[in-house]
Amino acid sequence: MISAGNIIKIKIEQINELREYLKNNRITPTKEVRDILEELSSGNLSQPASLEKILRRPAIEYKDLSRLVDDLPEYPGGNHRTN
Is residue 73 one of the residues assigned to a domain? Predict the structure, then answer.
């Protein structure tokens, strides 16, 4: 049986790994990316940006990033906003 303390440690580790992924993975302003961001009412993208920076946009939710990248990790505990 896993203790509550171990569950918390696992969740913290998963969140830290996800934050690193978002910080280290960038998207480039291709036409497809710009069109998706426009559909999401998130403005334009003129230079490459990290997924972390894109997620900070008010109109973007974590699940929206899956439209921009193919290998988006599952958010621990479900798809929630991260700021």
Answer: no
Average pLDDT over residues 29-56: 96
pTM over 0.85: no
Residue range 17-27, pLDDT digits in tens: 999 999 999 99
Q: How many domains does the chain contain in total?
A: 1
What is the rounded average pLDDT of the residues 32-43? 95
Give Cβ neighbours of residue 45 (< 8 Å, ≥ 6 apart).
27, 29, 33, 34, 37, 54
Q: What is the domain-level CATH number for residue 49?
A: 1.10.10.1800
Per the structure, the complete domain to which residue 44 belongs is given by 4-67
Exposure string (b/e) for 32-46, b if CB count within 10 Å is 16 or more?
A: ebbebbeebebeebe
In a domain, 11, yes or no: yes
